[in-house]
């Protein structure tokens, strides 16, 4: 049972899979050298190899237990860079071959900028030591220059590849979790956030409220003025809601002209006040080609041990009641139909 769970974690967490794979390669690749060098009396380099292996094991354990891959990545980049530099200084030309896999390793472990900085520091350390003690690292100046050119070429190409890969991954992540039209988070991201909210409430008693907002008579805008005009109303609506909501509130496009706002640390009275404030702001500031646009809102507070889908259903039922009551109003949980105003 544990193996399938581990595989699922690796599939879902790209960075964890990378640090695990690179860590295992490091352990399997360096351990034989550590054993050989210790057995032949090269205790300094053998000890460095052993420290690298032990550090890699500890970093992998930390990453799997905490889910944090940033700190272990930085830690391993520092340990591997220092260890490879020490090995190259002691072994000379034979140790320099470890610098090339080190460059690639660092670009997998940390951000491209940090990896490039680590590469420069390692090369600078080797060149400085080689200049202070001629013949210890490089057999000639020509060899030193050749090594610098090839290693900097490898570092530059790795930087370009890592930077483009990170940019594309971030863009794919954005496309996977955000609505392409409005920039609000999409329904897939909403489901994940609601799952997290329900779990957080069970563990830490953090309260959550949700508001489902529906733009009144939105179909008439599309029918009368075209979908482009309707799209612009949706874009303006999202921008307005983001501007008048708290920073910790998260907005999702629920579907069509329906949006969901997740409000952490919110009780029923606060949820009602927030909903009414948003409704008023939309009434005052949101405009379409035919004039002002209003919205109806249904809301609910997450109950203890409640499934997030049930929370969503209760809020959706309140939205239906608000629309049935004439629209442009707010209904939270089982509250009476109050705070209902005619569309201005």
Task: Give the strand content.
Answer: 5-15%
Number of helices: 13
General form: elongated
Question: Strand count, sense and closure of the main sheet?
Answer: 5 strands, mixed
Q: Over all CA atoms, what is the radius of gyration?
A: 29 Å
**H and E order:** HHHHHHHHHEHHEEHEEEHE
Strand order of the largest sheet: 2-3-1-6-7
Q: Can you give the helix content as a percent range?
A: 55-70%
The span between the termini is 60 Å
Category by helix and strand content:
alpha+beta
Stretches with pLDDT under 50, minimum 5 residues: 335-344
Q: Give the tally of β-strands.
A: 7
Please tell me the overall pLDDT: 89
**Tally of separate domains:** 2
What would you say this structure looks like, in words?
The chain has 344 residues and is α+β, with helices and mostly antiparallel strands. It folds into two domains: 2-177, no CATH class; 187-332, Reverse transcriptase/Diguanylate cyclase domain (Alpha-Beta Plaits), CATH 3.30.70. The chain is 68% helix and 10% strand. The protein is built from 13 helices and seven strands. A five-stranded mixed sheet has the order 2-3-1-6-7, sandwiched between helices. A hairpin with a 2-residue loop joins strand 4 (287-288) and strand 5 (291-292). Helix 6 (99-109) runs parallel beside helix 8 (141-177). It starts with a helix and ends in a 12-residue tail after the last strand. Mean pLDDT is 89; it is low at 335-344.
